[in-house]
Amino acid sequence: MKLWRTLPLIVGLVSLARADQVALHEPSDEASLLSQATSDELLYIHRTLIEIESITGNEEKVGKWLESYLKEKDFTVELQEVSSKRYNLLAYGKKRETTILVTSHIDTVPPFWPYYHNKTTDLIGGRGSVDAKASVAAQIMAVRGLKDQLQDDLSLLFVVGEETGGDGMRAFSEMEDRPEYDIVIFGEPTESKLVCGHKGMLGFSLKATGKAAHSGYPWLGVSANDVLVEALESMLVLRKRLPWSEKYGNTTMNFGKVEGGVAANVVAEAAEANMSVRIAAATPQIIKSMIVGALEGVKSKAQELGGDLEIEWVSEGYAPVDIDCDVEGFETVTVNYGTDVPNLKGNHKKYLYGPGSIFVAHSDHEALKKKDLEQAVLDFRRLIIATSMMHHDEREET
Ligand SMILES: *[C@@H]1O[C@H](CO)[C@@H](O)[C@H](O)[C@H]1NC(C)=O
Ligand SMILES: *[C@@H]1O[C@H](CO)[C@@H](O)[C@H](O)[C@H]1NC(C)=O
Ligand SMILES: *[C@@H]1O[C@H](CO)[C@@H](O)[C@H](O)[C@H]1NC(C)=O
Ligand SMILES: [Zn+2]
What is the pLDDT of residue 396? Predict the structure, then answer.
């Protein structure tokens, strides 16, 4: 009964997989990875998404455009208001509960850079061209091409706020009647590789306080800058012995922003440093206790003098995130940047893939090759087909 029901699907998938093999291994001339119509449509979506500025906080317009586009293509689209005028989009065919979810984000980092397509180099650039509007455009074309074969068993989710901590994905995760998925495919720039995991994250600030005085009479005050410099010195020592792992390498600590005092001739009353840790092993709790321990001496010394040193945690942080990468035919890699992967709770298998390189993603020369954008449509399809077949096989076995 079960086999009888899934057989046509499997046959459909296998023939599709074959069709993809042909397209993948015989790209006779570079411009023809996809049919002309599919390529044109892909470039049109990509271009429109980039032309609509959507720096985090300002995602409304791009969301509205996507909503109307997807509705026109016969998707059912649900909007979820994350905060005032900021919407996640959930799109699906005939059924709301689907096996597979394909997702990425529609916000970008600042500042806005306009779209361009240089036909000589075949580079397509502009803010978001890589991170993550390339993934969004390729995912839409991949899902549109498979919707019928997979009997509408696919959903698309485009969230806001990924670049500033993931409030969009967290809101979706907590949505009351949200569907659960078996497989979730996340889109971020991975240079077209399958990511087997990424480092964890912990952000914190060091806040030193002192007492202002004339710099000619420093003993009348307490220098917050002195306290902070000593604290940072302890951090320089600590960061050399943070935990590491084979898989993710060293835990690193960045002194991102350091600020203190008001003028050269004034003993500083306040100073602070914003820090971020990329965690390669252990948990945020363990790293936190190492940091607290390393700062104990500086803190009590500051307090004896009448100053203070406080640690403010930006959030709970998260441990390294292991991601599934058990699909043949993809290069695999681990990365050091954060994603929305840990923000979606559930028991689903997770995959992370996307066109373009993280090394240009937040830069003023954010761009990717048209060929890589096109390849991503084929790769997303291949991922969807392979993971869906694995899923069916597993269900047959149990
Ligand atoms: C395209 O790129 C080439 C090589 O970098 C450059 O010389 C040319 O000016 C660019 N064309 C346009 C229209 O920007
Ligand atoms: C630095 O940390 C303080 C909190 O201690 C916070 O108010 C401020 O926004 C942070 N600055 C940056 C650039 O993250
Ligand atoms: C990790 O740190 C050690 C010592 O600080 C260094 O020798 C090593 O090259 C680092 N490993 C990586 C992968 O960066
Ligand atoms: Zn991104």
Answer: 80
